[in-house]
Amino acid sequence: MKDLIAAFPLGFVASVTSDGAPAVSPKGTFLVLDDHRIAYSDIRSPGTRRNLMANPAVEVNFIDPFKRKAVRVAGTSVLHPKGSDWFKAQHPIWLDVFGGLAKRIQSFVEINIHSASEIWTPPYDDGATEAEMIATYKAKFGAIYP
User: Fold this and answer.
1) Strand partners for 69
2) How many angstroms separate the CA atoms of 59 and 100, rounded?
3) Among 14, 102, 18, which Cα is nearest to 53's?
4) What is the mean pLDDT of residues 7-31?
5) pTM for this predicted structure
6) Three-class SS of residue 8?
7) How far apart are CA 63 and CA 118, in angstroms?
């Protein structure tokens, strides 16, 4: 699961709005901190930030579009604003990984993981291999983006 997140750090973050509705927003700067925590940088996500401040429950889904496997992570979020000790300690890591984009970070969102699970597409149930899935989706993406 860590390898998938490292290779594809775009996570689809599900939070809850003030009226109880689900809200999903992609965040492309996730890093695995350790076995129990992941985090992303908040560059321009006022809605998600507002939702998490009111209700810290969060789920994130990461997808490997070639293997057609995913990771679903559920946990509790903690916001770390610019200027906080946590922010100051972590910012150099994001700067190293994400370059100039990291200069626009407004806060970090740390997620303390309560549960994590892998999700596989149904063709695996029918005996498909990772190599077959990768070949199929390389061809599909190659046709879309020649």
Assistant:
1) 64, 120
2) 27
3) 18
4) 96
5) 0.93
6) coil
7) 10
